[in-house]
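Discussion board: Methods & Data

I've been asked by a reviewer to show the raw model output for two of the constructs in my manuscript, not just the figures. I'm not sure how much to include, so I'm pasting the format here to get opinions. Each protein appears as its amino acid sequence followed by a line of discrete structure tokens. Is this the kind of thing reviewers expect to see in a supplement, or should I convert it first? Here is construct A:
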Amino acid sequence: MIRIPENTTIVGELRSSGEVRVDGRFQGEGNIEGTLILTESCVWVGKAVADTVVIEGIVEGDIIARKKLLVGMHARIRGSIKTPVIKIDCGAKLRCRIDMQLEKPAGLLEHKPLSVADVIPDEVAQMRLKSRKTA
């Protein structure tokens, strides 16, 4: 895990894989193959791209979460968001455009039609089918 501590300012480009946690200030562009965690003390100015983005701090810029975006109650976001899945906690403040991609990400949100067996346990489903046949 890479960590940018509080009271630290980085200006530039951040590229990494795995988990990146930012407690300090970052200005520039980040591209993370993994999870980007922006804590309550974080100020991020610029573009952030990652598989999963967790925001508790301040973000001014564009966010692209390839898999999901989790917005905590202390988050303050101004910019644009693009993600297939988003969870926003009560208390978060957003002033942005949100684009929930229509394209299905690989392996995420796969949908198949439900059958009775998916919803009702096998024994109950069999009992219901038998009672319908005898009625």
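Construct B, same format:
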Amino acid sequence: MASNWVRGNLNTTCVILDTSAILMPFEFSIDIEKELERLLGRFTIVIPQAVLDELNMIDTRGSGRKHRQAHAAYTWVQRFQSIPTSKYGDDAVVEAAQQKNAYVVTNDRELRSRLRKLSIPTITLRQKQYLILEE
């Protein structure tokens, strides 16, 4: 694991989760926090308010397995900091990543492509088992 100590100061990496990332632990039984620690060392997870709203909508309108996953995910992310954004959906994730100079965890292919074009580092799930960093 790479050290995050720089000249005696502890750097913490900011990480934005989109909806697909928030659902990963409940769909694939992956420990996102453990995987992020393996990749980045110290980190802080931040959730755009628009993503929380989307997850809440899935929770309240869904049924069956998807509803149960969304409900568990919504409960889990309540412990992380949320930030307001002026946009919705993927636009909110991009806006938050740019504001915070953050990494983005997502499985959304279209969003990953968009983030790459903006030079925003992404983290994605591989083989339904572990996260990889795409810089």
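Answer (T.O., handling editor elsewhere):
This is acceptable in a supplement if you add a one-line summary per construct. For B, something like: Residues 21-134 form a domain with the Rossmann fold fold (CATH 3.40.50.1010).
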